[in-house]
Specification:
This protein has about 300 residues and is α/β, with parallel strands linked by helices. The protein is built from twelve helices and six strands. Helix 7 runs parallel beside helix 12. Bound molecules: fe (ii) ion. Fe (ii) ion binds next to helix 6.
Length: about 300
């Protein structure tokens, strides 16, 4: 069951503990707001490709099924889609072999994520569930911040299933299956990381608008662009780094200032979505990130 304190903005939190989430504890996915959720912006490489748009809309529609039935529908990816995956996954794997965190590389193997074929959310969901009681739920596109982060409090991440446009395999302006499966999903095999994600989710549910902005920055500099120190070396674990050739290479150059993780600094550091990241933060361990975040979220109720 969920602690009552996590459900209401007016109730202060006392102390956060992780709890197991059972299927019956989940709120109904069909109650999610999804206005314009599968809108495609004009700067998307597939914006003027009618076939691509139809296909993307079709795959997105499968996540509406999920909200009605609770079952993840597997996507029968086309040969063209599989080819995009092979190109991107192969090139990323080359760079990741020296730059990605060791735990992440191992997690990819555990989840069966390889360069040959696009993994199905249903398969990865089963494994994550067993490892750290974590879940994946298909979604048709970007969701507003509070809604998206709040689902993490149920140890659930909303994930897209479609893939980027073939004209620019190295680029996508929106989350796609490459970003989700290669960037985010392996991290949830780490129970400290899964717990940390759940704390962020709790925070999103009780945060003021200002605190939500801070949480967005914490998410950005960890889940999306985090570096970790492993055996004296810096490695990437953030999804925005692990799923982008450019960002992953850039992260280890002189163009980037790599700072030790400092929560107060992180939540007050602004970032730009569209530029290469000039500042990255290095956590000493996932356990440290979890405990620091726990204390931070516990402070929300008292403000
Ligand atoms: Fe992401």
């Amino acid at each position: 069951m969920l602690p009552e304190t996590a459900l209401s903005k007016s109730e202060p939190t006392s102390s956060l503990t992780n709890f197991e989430v059972k299927d019956e504890d989940l709120p109904a996915f069909r109650d999610m707001k999804f206005e314009n959720i599968n809108e495609l912006h004009l700067d998307h490489p597939g914006a003027s490709d009618e076939d691509y748009r139809r296909r993307r809309d079709y795959i997105a529609s499968l996540s509406k099924n999920f909200r009605e039935t609770g079952a993840i529908t597997d996507v029968e990816y086309t040969e063209q889609e599989q080819a995009i995956w092979r190109i991107v996954a192969t090139r990323l794997e080359e760079i990741q072999s020296s730059r990605a965190s060791a735990f992440y590389l191992d997690a990819k193997k555990k989840l069966g994520i390889n360069t040959e074929r696009i993994p199905q959310l249903s398969e990865m969901n089963k494994r994550l569930n067993k490892l750290c009681n974590f879940r994946l739920a298909p979604i048709e596109g970007l969701v507003e911040t509070r809604g998206f982060l709040s689902w993490l409090s149920y140890r659930t991440m909303l994930c897209t299933q479609y893939i980027r446009h073939h004209s620019r395999p190295e680029y996508t302006p929106e989350p796609d299956i490459v970003h989700e499966a290669i960037g985010h999903i392996p991290n949830f095999t780490n129970c400290d990381f899964a717990d940390f994600s759940q704390f962020i989710g709790h925070g999103a549910r009780i945060a003021t608008d200002e605190q939500l902005e801070e949480l967005g920055r914490l998410y950005w500099f960890t889940v999306e662009f985090g570096l970790v120190e492993e055996n004296g070396e810096l490695k990437a674990y953030g999804a925005g780094l692990l799923s982008s050739f450019g960002e992953l290479e850039n992260a280890f150059t002189d163009k980037v200032e790599r700072r030790p993780f400092d929560l107060e600094q992180v939540i007050n550091t602004r970032y730009e979505y569209s530029d290469m990241q000039p500042i990255l933060y290095v956590i000493p361990s996932y356990a440290y990130l979890k405990e620091t975040t726990r204390k931070y979220i516990e402070s929300f109720g008292g403000k």
